[in-house]
């Protein structure tokens, strides 16, 4: 008889980076795996960085290797220790730790020495042209560039000029150091790229020691080489830079690190441009870098997204060589998957109608033991007070209800969650005809523990009017109205697509146990959604941010 293997899960297929690493290890090209995460400390990390972090740290972990954190701090006018600290906090929050903490500035002396080496070998020169003249001289894809009139300076003159640049004898933009490669090269990156520019600016680590700073393309590969990075993994837009990366390493005859590219993360209803995110912050379209609508890691953390959900999301979207637009609903699905099993439950009424139980004993309070999480029926409970005056959500009552409306209606019955069945006997309205109160009776024989079980089709949440705690709700939605923000025409301002309903603030009423929750993660407002307490909360005003809705029709493939 054949064995039934239908329940055996097929092993996950290796992605192209795993295939490369396994081949390199098998062929002895590398003895161990060394990756790096190299952010520039000029802003806060966003969801795109989360993908890169998970890939770089995840691959090293899988193959028993290590990962360095290296800050690409070569642009002192835009960098700050504030960003350095936030980046380290975000990486640790995601669940990763680095082997070494390095900075490109650690290697400024070595990079300078290599630049002099290239000058001495006739492979670099000082150029006096302006940035506009250099750009114009590079030509175009179908037109070769024009050599600088300063390209053939002698080695001795170039060395002296470069040393004078380092000594601070020239103003910003007055001179640059360029590699001497090929002004007609089909890859425009090779048309005498800039190696150093002059910037008289205080550096967050080196102070005023330097007034010349290396360019990214000159710095990155050499830093990888110094650290013996075996697999330098970056996003796809750097694939055109890879030949130059290899050229510098070969020319300087140093450790042969190699670069590999993967598709960056593009997410619906989201922008991940540092420049545009900075503008949103500076012009107060959002409250800051950690505004819960922002795609920054500090923003989604404040919104209540668990780190495990981001790791799950990055695992599900995988690693590819082709750019694609990922649906934000997949991220939200991962958040719900993670929170559903772990979140404590509470009842919160957001749009209240008063319910008066006319047969309840005046002044009586009954406390119910209710589970904090139904997934753990024998687990912790919270005490919920039940009285003769209650609040229910307006959406749970309908005066002229259709046949399949199973919540409260005139002469209809519903169970108040965890407690009794009640019946609506009278509807009270104000002068404008708005429902303001429901007169009801409760059935004492339907106590969930001591009574007899009687089934009704509807169960709704509620809070005791006397014990309810007012809280501020910040209901967040998507920041933009356009799904593919990267496809917006160049002549349109991306801010035109800001969602005016991305934040709606309201007051709600919560059972008292919610205020005492110390779980540290988003909680579930029963039948409503997931919310997390915000840092703006005070003893006088407790604030909750909406993390995500309770359910959605979206299902991952």
Explain what you see.
- There is one protein chain.
- α7 (216-226) packs across α8 and α11 (307-317) crosses α12.
- α8 (242-252) links the parallel β8 and β9 (259-262).
- This protein has 12 helices and 27 strands.
- The longest helix is centred in the N-terminal third of the chain and has 16 residues, at 47-62.
- The chain is of the alpha/beta class.
- The two termini are 34 Å apart.
- The protein is elongated and about 100 Å long.
- The chain is 24% helix and 22% strand.
- It has a 7-stranded mixed beta sheet. Strands 21-18-19-20-14-17-22 form a 7-stranded mixed beta sheet, with no helix packed on it. A 4-stranded antiparallel beta sheet has the order 4-5-6-7.
- The chain has helices at 16-26, 47-62, 81-94, 108-120, 131-137, 155-166, 216-226, 242-252, 274-282, 297-303, 307-317, 328-340, and strands spanning 34-37, 66-71, 101-103, 124-127, 176-179, 194-198, 212-214, 232-235, 259-262, 266-267, 325-326, 345-346, 348-349, 352-357, 366-371, 381-386, 389-393, 413-416, 421-429, 435-443, 459-460, 463-464, 469-476, 503-510, 523-525, 529-533, 543-549.
């Amino acid at each position: 008889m054949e064995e039934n293997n239908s329940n055996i899960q097929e092993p996950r297929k290796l992605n192209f980076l795993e295939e490369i690493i396994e081949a390199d290890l098998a062929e002895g090209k590398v003895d161990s795996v060394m990756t790096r995460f190299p952010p520039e400390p000029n802003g806060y990390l966003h969801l795109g960085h989360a993908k890169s972090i998970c890939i770089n740290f995840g691959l090293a972990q899988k193959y028993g290797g290590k990962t360095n954190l290296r800050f690409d701090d070569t642009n002192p006018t835009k960098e700050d220790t504030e960003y350095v600290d936030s980046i380290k906090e975000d990486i640790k929050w995601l669940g990763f730790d680095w082997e070494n903490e390095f900075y490109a500035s650690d290697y400024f002396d070595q990079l300078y020495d290599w630049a002099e080496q290239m000058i001495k070998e006739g492979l670099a020169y000082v150029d006096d042209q302006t940035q506009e003249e250099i750009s114009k001289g590079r030509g175009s894809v179908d037109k070769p560039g024009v050599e600088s009139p300063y390209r053939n300076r002698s080695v001795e003159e170039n060395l002296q000029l470069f040393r004078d640049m380092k000594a601070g004898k020239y103003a910003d933009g007055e001179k640059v150091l360029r590699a001497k490669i090929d002004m007609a090269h089909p890859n425009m990156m090779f048309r005498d790229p800039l190696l150093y520019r002059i910037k008289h600016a205080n550096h967050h680590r080196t102070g005023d020691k330097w007034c010349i700073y290396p360019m990214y393309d000159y710095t990155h590969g050499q830093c990888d080489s110094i650290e013996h990075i075996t697999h330098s993994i970056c996003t796809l837009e750097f694939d055109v830079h890879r030949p130059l990366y290899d050229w510098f390493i070969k020319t300087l005859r140093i450790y042969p690190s190699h670069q590999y590219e993967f598709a960056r993360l593009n997410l619906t209803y989201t922008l991940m441009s540092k420049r545009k995110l900075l503008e949103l912050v500076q012009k107060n379209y959002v409250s800051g870098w950690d505004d819960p609508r922002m795609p920054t890691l500090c923003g989604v953390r404040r919104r209540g997204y668990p780190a495990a959900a981001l790791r799950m999301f990055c695992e599900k979207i995988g690693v590819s060589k082709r750019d694609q637009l990922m649906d934000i609903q997949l991220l939200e699905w991962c958040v719900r998957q993670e929170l559903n099993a772990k979140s404590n439950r509470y009842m919160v009424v957001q749009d209240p109608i008063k319910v008066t139980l006319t047969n309840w004993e005046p002044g009586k309070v009954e406390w119910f033991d209710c589970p904090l999480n139904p997934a753990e029926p024998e687990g912790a409970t919270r005490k919920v007070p039940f009285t003769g005056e209650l609040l229910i959500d307006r959406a749970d009552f309908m005066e002229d209800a259709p046949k399949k409306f199973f919540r409260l209606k005139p002469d209809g019955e519903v169970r108040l969650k965890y407690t009794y069945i009640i019946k609506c006997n009278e509807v009270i309205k104000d002068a404008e005809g708005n429902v303001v109160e429901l007169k009801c009776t409760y059935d004492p024989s339907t106590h969930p523990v001591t009574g007899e079980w009687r089934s009704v089709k509807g169960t709704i949440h509620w809070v005791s009017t006397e014990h309810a705690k007012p809280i501020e709700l910040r209901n967040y939605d998507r920041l933009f109205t356009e799904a593919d923000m990267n496809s917006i025409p160049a002549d349109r301002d991306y801010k035109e697509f800001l969602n005016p309903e991305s934040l709606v603030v309201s007051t709600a009423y919560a059972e008292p146990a919610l205020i005492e929750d110390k779980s540290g993660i988003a909680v579930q407002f029963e039948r409503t959604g997931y919310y997390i307490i915000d840092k703006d909360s005070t003893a006088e005003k407790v604030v909750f941010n909406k993390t995500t809705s309770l359910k959605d029709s979206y299902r991952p493939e």
